[in-house]
Amino acid sequence: MAKLRARVRVAIAAGVDWVQIREKELPERELLAVAREAVGAAESANGKRATAGLAAARVIVNDRLDVALAAQAAGVHLGGDSAPVDEVVRWCRGGNAPAGFEVGVSCHSVEGARVAEGARASYVIYGPVFDTPSKRDFGPPQGLARLEEVCRSVKIPVIAIGGVNAENAVECLHAGAAGIAAIRMFQEAGSEEELRATIAKLRRLE
Fold first, then answer.
1. Distant-in-sequence, close-in-space partners of 81: CB < 8 Å, separation ≥ 6
2. CA–CA distance, 152 with 167 (Å, rounded to integer)
3. In principle, which of 32, 56, 123, 138 could form an S-S bond with 46, CB 3.0–4.6 Å?
4. What's the CA gap between 164 and 116, in Å, rounded?
């Protein structure tokens, strides 16, 4: 856990916009502690980020709406096995969550993206766009043409995921993605300096 927490702090300090807490296997107390620490790190960094002209860093918690709310995170992200997005959105928009609380959804098709938009989700994460070991259980790569189709089909932001790296990220943005999400690309940056360099390269694509 110490390594995970340190990595989150480094990522936020290096300029990552969103941190998604995905450790579903953690006991609730540990997950809440990690989420709270990440939120604290984001809040501590946001003054400097504002001075540098960067958007505020935000923390999103996977699946666990209760943990996201208790940690005062920016939102919750739902997967295929999560609670139905329309019910979560309805509950949150009914005054049970802070204004601006994000409800995001993972999807793997145009239809899934449209359903998420119809349920008033804040954004969708779409993929896998490219081949990546962590996403092979979700089927073959969808490719850039399918990503572009999804982006054209909905008005909410579409975040590309799956095999995205500093070289092909620009193709995702040209296809209409509002941003990119990655695991391996950021994990492979061995130091904060390397991570800063990777993020700086990505920002030049915006």
1. none
2. 23
3. 56
4. 22
DSSP conformation class of 137: G
Phi, then psi, of 61 in degrees rounded to 5: -110, 130
Q: Report pLDDT digits (tens) over 34-88.
A: 999 999 999 999 998 898 888 899 999 999 999 999 999 999 999 988 999 999 9
Task: Render pLDDT for 156-187 as a digit per residue (tens, 0 to 9).
Answer: 999 999 999 989 999 999 999 999 999 888 87
Yes or no: say if 202 and 15 are a contact pair by the CB < 8 Å rule.
no
Complete domains list, the chain, with CATH: 1-61 (no CATH), 74-206 (3.20.20.70)
* Cα gap 78→56, rounded to integer Å: 22
Ranges of beta strands (E only) in 68-191 are 75-78, 102-107, 123-126, 158-161, 179-181
